[in-house]
Amino acid sequence: MIRTIVLATQKGGSGKSTLAMSLAVAAQQAGETVRVIETDPQGTLSYWQSRRGLAEPLVEPIHQPSDLGRRLDALARGGVTLAVIDTSSGINALMRAAIDQADLCLVPARPCVADIVAAAPTVKIIRSSGRRFAFVLNQAPHRGQRASEAANALSQGDRDLADIIAKPLITLRNDHQDALAAGLGVTEFNDDGKSAEEIRLLWQWIEQRLAQGDTCHALRTAGAEAHSQMTNAGAPPLNEMSLSWDACL
Question: The domain that contains 209 carries what CATH number?
Fold first, then answer.
C-alpha cells in the first residue's frame, strides 16, 4: 500500500520544496520506501536530484494531471510505501489532482497572519476534496511570538483550524538551504543539528496522522461491509451509536 502526502499552498515562498525533500529523506531513514513527485515547473527538486545523483529517494517530474494517479498506482505495485508530492504556487489542475490523491495534505505557511490568510483558498480546495490536512508553520524566527500569533490567527478565523497545526514548527536556519545546495536532506546534511531534529519530529507527527488515517479507513470499510451484510440479511439498519467507525470521518 502506498500513502501519499501533498505539500500545497497557493502562496509562493512558503518552503514547500525544502520541506518535501527533507521529509522524504527523514521518512526513508525511518524505514519507508519513498518516491518524490515534482509537479512544480520551477524544478527545485529536480535541481536537488541533480546534485544528489542516483541516491534515493528519487524525484520524478509529472506535468499532466491525468498521469498522476496512474503513476502512483505503478509506484505502489513497485513496492513504494510513501509518495511525497511537491506542488507549484497558485491554483491549477495539477495541484487539484495531487490533492485528490492525498492521504494527508500539508499546508506550509510562515508564522504570520498574512501567510495564514493567503492559504485560505488552498484549504478550501482541500476541504472540498474531503482530504485531511494540517498547517506546517515553517521558516519561524528563532525568537519572538510569531508562532503563537499565527496559531491565534487560525483559531480566530476558524476554530476547527486551531487543532490542525503540525508539530513542531520549523525554525528558519541555514541548514535547510545548505542541504538543498548539497543535494541532501537536512537530516543527512547535519544529523545532530536542531533543524534535523525538528524534521525528524515532524515526520513522526505526520506518520502518526497517516496511521490514524489507516485505522479510520479500516473501520469505515468494516462498518460499511457489516452494514451491507445486515441489510442483505433483512436486519434493521445500524443505529448511530453502533457506527463507531463514523467518528473518523
Answer: 3.40.50.300
